[in-house]
């Protein structure tokens, strides 16, 4: 177990040493990595109000996808797309392009090179860019924000509607309840980030849960892996179908509450380092 954890931490540290540029001039985000998107989960960043699309980094042109014909290797839902791979096996996909004509005769690209223009060829909004990064050696999808330059964001994430649900399906509000029976509870909360006040709700970058100072849950939105049936966060420790099983809520885990005074703390962070903490104090009998 320790060997696998060390390997995973090294993998994340290795990824963070990479540096990409923004693929658009103005990085206005519509959806973030691992964010619930209707009936599915976003596996990429989706930028809105996009005109010109540029390469975030160096890569060899692996394949161009024509949205009209599709491909047996990539889903046609990407529309027109160009796919690059670098020497370390990192694959970057730029999708929902108006066309792929620019790269019909080119074999590689450098950071900042023009790839094309956003269109309406994919199953997404017009003038948006789908930007996805995959590690082909470890067979995982990676949050592109790990590679991107810092951007100014002073709006902290939001934590709302936190509830505890026991085995009898009784819903308890930890903000108002003062006494709770000891035992196992499912913890749910509505957690989201806002890149700008009044803007589109976005996924957080990390969520942690602690009880009386002891960390019991850690959900980093950094890497997605798959077993062919489900998607997982953090080296297959957190199932996204379980995380998003209740509409508008996140399942933060099943927690055991021992007798005594309890302080339950939920912390949400975004990529800019803004932090929101919600503390709940109650007695367990």
- Helix fraction by DSSP (H/I, runs of at least 4): under 10%
Dominant shape:
elongated
Percent strand equals: 35-45%
Distance between the termini: 35 Å
Element-by-element helix/strand order: HEEEEEEEEEEEEEEEEEEEEEEHEEE
Strand elements, count: 25
What does the radius of gyration come to?
21 Å
Query: How is the biggest beta sheet arranged?
Result: 11 strands, antiparallel
Commentary on this structure:
This protein is mainly beta. It has helices at residues 2-16, 240-243, and strands spanning 29-31, 36-37, 40-41, 45-47, 52-54, 59-65, 80-85, 90-97, 108-109, 114-117, 129-135, 140-142, 158-165, 171-172, 179-180, 183-194, 201-202, 206-211, 214-220, 223-226, 231-233, 238-239, 250-257, 260-269, 275-284. The radius of gyration is 21 Å and the shape is elongated. The strands form 5 sheets. Strands 1, 4, 6, 7, 8, 9, 11, 12, 20, 21 and 22 form an 11-stranded antiparallel beta sheet that branches. Helix content is 7%, strand content 44%.
Layout of helices and strands:
Layout: H1 2-16, E1 29-31, E2 36-37, E3 40-41, E4 45-47, E5 52-54, E6 59-65, E7 80-85, E8 90-97, E9 108-109, E10 114-117, E11 129-135, E12 140-142, E13 158-165, E14 171-172, E15 179-180, E16 183-194, E17 201-202, E18 206-211, E19 214-220, E20 223-226, E21 231-233, E22 238-239, H2 240-243, E23 250-257, E24 260-269, E25 275-284
Parallel strand pairs: 15-25
Antiparallel strand pairs: 1-4, 2-3, 4-11, 5-10, 6-7, 6-9, 7-8, 8-11, 11-12, 12-20, 13-14, 13-16, 16-17, 16-23, 18-19, 18-24, 20-21, 21-22, 24-25
